[in-house]
Amino acid sequence: MKTGYKKVLLIMPSKIIARGIEAVLSELGEFRVDGILSDLSHTSEARLRNMDADVIMIDPVVFDYVSRMNVRNRISEYSTAAVVAFKSIPMDEEQLKQYDGVIGLYDDPVTVVKKLRESISSREESVDSEGYDLSVREKEILVCVAKGMLNKEIADFYNLSIHTVITHRKNITRKTGIKTVAGLTVYALLNNLIDPASIDI
After folding, report:
1. CA R_g for the chain
2. In a domain, 111, yes or no
3. How many other CB atoms are found less than 10 A from the CB of residue 158?
4. pLDDT confidence bin for 189, thresholds 50/70/90
5. What is the per-residue pLDDT across 119-133, written as a single tens digit (0 to 9) for each?
6. Are residues 119 and 36 in the same domain?
7. Which tens digit of pLDDT belongs to each residue from 92-121?
8. In a shared domain, residues 42 and 111
């Protein structure tokens, strides 16, 4: 079912800030907070896998200083959503480059909505320009497809939402140009992603 708003997942340790963002977005109507996580523990990662967010707004302080350089890679294991940094403290510009957008603590509501819109556009453009190399997750899903697994089985196996699996499959088709399961199976075999003995013929 398509909603009239974009879904936002907040990952931030401050409930006061999270609830404030939720109230502001609710008033403006274009974006709605669909979930709030206080960190990225194993429990939170499981919830992240099952949420179908358009944008993930994360306060980088949930990570230690070293881990902050790798936030995008970590989030992309669980979601294809745009990732926006909520900058609650001064941060190194190098760390902020990985995000699709950056929202400051003192940005007004109209600016926040504008930046969220731009982050979604930025993410869509970066996905289009990523080229034709499959990501690690896409290769894993391609192997499952080649083995004859259904979307629900793949989602359960990797603890992902079905929507995320479908998005990965669309990306696989776009990058390879192959639309059939048989064609994807041949692709997996030719690229040594799968052992021929593991396929039921």
Report:
1. 18
2. yes
3. 17
4. confident
5. 988 777 665 545 567
6. yes
7. 888 888 899 999 999 999 999 999 999 988
8. yes
Question: Which uninterrupted H or E stretch holds 10?
Answer: strand 6-11
Between 196 and 28, name the one with better pLDDT: 28
Range of the domain at 144: 136-198
pTM above 0.85, yes or no: no
Long-range contacts, stretch 42-50, CB < 8 angstroms, 24+ apart: 44/11, 45/78, 46/159, 48/9, 48/11, 48/75, 48/78, 48/79, 49/78, 49/79, 49/158, 49/159, 49/160, 49/161, 49/164, 50/159, 50/160, 50/161
Q: What is the pLDDT of residue 158?
A: 86
H or E element that contains 84: strand 82-87
Residue 1 lies in a domain: no
**What's the angle, vertex CA 182, arms to CA 196 and CA 185, rounded to 5?**
35
Residue at 87 is within a domain: yes
Domain's final residue, options 129, 151, 171: 129
**Whether residues 178 and 193 fall in one domain:** yes
